[in-house]
C-alpha cells in the first residue's frame, strides 16, 4: 500500500497514530535518558549537601559526647556494691530516709557481658522517695533504673504503717 493510494480521510486517521509512535520512539531514544540523568543529578546534589553538612554534624556530636561524658563522670571502672551503698546512705542521711534492705547483687551473664542487679528498699515519705528516684535516674549514674515498686507496709513491732520503695538498679560490665 502506497501513501499516494490512500485517501485524505485515511491519511488524517493515520496521522495521530503516527505522531504517537514517533513520540514514543523519540522519548525512548532521547528524552528517557535525559530524565534519568536529571534524577541522578538531583540525588547526587542531595548527597553533596549532606556531605557538606558533615563537619558541622561531627562538631555537634563531639560537643554532645563531651557534655555526656562530663555528666556521667566518665565511669570506666566497675560500680561496686560499696560505692552504691555509700552514695545511697549519704543521700538517705541528709533527706531523712531509711535504708531497709540492701542485699548483695544478683549477677547474670548476657552476650558476654556481666549484668549486676542491685535491689534496695528505702523507707520515707512519698515526696522524699520520689525525689530520690529522680536523683538516681537523672543526676547520679550508678546504673540503669530497671524498676521501682512502692509499697505500704506495716511494722509489726510498733504497729505503724510506712511507705517504702523497692528500687532495682542494673549495671553492665
Structure description:
With about 170 residues, this protein is an alpha+beta fold. The protein is about 55% helix and about 25% strand. The protein is built from four helices and five strands; from the N terminus they run αααβββαββ. Strands 1, 2, 3, 4 and 5 form a five-stranded antiparallel sheet that branches. A hairpin with a 4-residue loop joins strand 4 and strand 5. The longest helix has about 45 residues, at about 10-50. The radius of gyration is 37 Å and the shape is elongated. The mean pLDDT is about 85.
Give a quick rundown of the structure.
53% of the residues lie in helices and 26% in strands. The protein has 173 residues and is of the alpha+beta class. Strands 1, 2, 3, 4 and 5 form a five-stranded antiparallel beta sheet that branches.
How are the SSEs placed, and which strands pair?
Layout: H1 8-52, H2 54-72, H3 81-94, E1 98-101, E2 106-110, E3 113-123, H4 126-139, E4 144-155, E5 160-172
Antiparallel strand pairs: 1-3, 2-3, 3-5, 4-5
Continuous helix count = 4
Mean pLDDT: 84
Percent of residues in beta strands: 25-35%
Q: What separation lies between the terminal Cα atoms?
A: 88 Å
User: Which geometry do the CA atoms define?
Assistant: elongated
Unreliable spans: none
Order of helices and strands: HHHEEEHEE
Radius of gyration: 37 Å
**Oligomeric state as shown:** single chain
Amino acid at each position: 500500500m502506497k501513501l499516494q493510494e490512500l485517501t485524505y480521510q485515511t491519511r488524517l486517521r493515520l496521522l495521530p497514530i503516527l505522531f504517537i509512535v514517533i513520540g514514543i520512539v523519540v522519548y525512548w531514544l532521547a528524552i528517557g535518558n535525559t530524565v534519568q540523568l536529571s534524577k541522578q543529578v538531583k540525588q547526587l546534589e542531595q548527597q553533596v549537601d549532606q556531605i557538606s553538612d558533615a563537619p558541622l554534624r561531627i562538631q555537634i556530636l563531639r560537643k554532645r559526647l563531651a557534655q555526656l561524658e562530663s555528666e556521667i563522670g566518665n565511669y570506666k571502672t566497675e560500680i561496686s556494691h560499696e560505692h552504691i551503698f555509700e552514695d545511697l546512705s549519704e543521700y538517705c542521711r541528709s533527706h531523712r530516709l531509711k535504708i531497709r534492705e540492701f542485699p548483695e547483687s544478683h549477677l547474670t551473664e548476657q552476650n558476654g557481658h556481666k549484668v549486676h542487679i542491685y535491689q534496695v528498699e528505702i523507707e520515707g515519705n512519698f515526696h522524699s522517695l520520689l525525689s530520690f528516684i529522680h536523683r538516681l535516674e537523672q543526676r547520679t549514674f550508678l546504673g540503669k533504673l530497671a524498676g521501682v515498686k512502692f509499697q505500704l507496709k506495716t511494722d509489726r513491732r510498733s504497729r505503724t504503717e510506712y511507705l517504702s520503695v523497692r528500687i532495682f538498679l542494673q549495671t553492665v560490665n
